[in-house]
Amino acid sequence: MIKPKIALTIAGTDPTGGAGVMADLKSFHSCGVYGMGVVTSIVAQNTLGVQHIHNLNHQWVDEQLDSVFNDTLPHAIKTGMIATADTMETIRHYLMQHESIPYVIDPVMLAKSGDSLMDNNTKQNLQHTLLPLADVVTPNLPEAEEITGLTIDSEEKIMQAGRIFINEIGSKGVIIKGGHSNDADIAKDYLFTKEGVQTFENERFKTKHTHGTGCTFSAVITAELAKGRPLFEAVHKAKKFISMSIQYTPEIGRGRGPVNHFAYLKKEGLDDELSK
Prior knowledge:
Elements: E1 6-12, H1 20-30, E2 34-46, E3 49-55, H2 58-69, E4 76-79, H3 85-97, E5 103-105, H4 120-129, E6 136-137, H5 141-148, H6 155-169, E7 173-176, E8 186-193, E9 196-203, H7 213-226, H8 231-247, H9 263-268, H10 271-274
Parallel strand pairs: 1-2, 1-4, 4-5, 5-6
Antiparallel strand pairs: 2-3, 7-8, 8-9
Helix pairs in contact: 1-7, 2-3, 3-4, 5-6, 7-8
């Protein structure tokens, strides 16, 4: 029997299953990767917004990570919602011990509803503790603005932001997602590495049901990196995956519903292909 590749997510929860650890694990499964999850925050949220957040003590996060790493090593790691500086330091300790494992950061700062998920002190700490360790960071435009301090209102500003991530912050790669741009028809993303810039374009679907798209996108990249895919191929797969997940959204809930984490499997009949 061939052992599956393993991906670890470290993030908050979503009881409705649209975002956070729950969305990550479903995305890992759809990519044929065995998923593990460490919880940083218990988040009471739904398609209407975030009602309550209970951030776990960093020692509880450490205990979970210790359990994982004392038993098995993941082939790739992603972090999502990390609401305290102490928890960031705890995670950094494990990442520093396993620098060869690909690491993806989804810098979750705002929920789709606009609710803030990270205080200013923690935002500043993110730049010094975790971002320099990342193989790729996946900010949307508002998150890229928060991190770089720029007002990103043009392609020129996107290019400037990408250079800040690579040359000043020290991330190996960053993909700045254009889903929040004003282009009504095309969703354009920009992948920056030391080798240069590559762009990805997809049709933009007219729907409000996009809850958890950032989590899902970064989770698919993580799963593909766990399989040993090059970063460009991982991002290309994630773009196709998220596009189909939005196109075939299940329209759950009374607000911004989740995407369909299994649409890629069912539409393309790739149950076997995705596990390769």
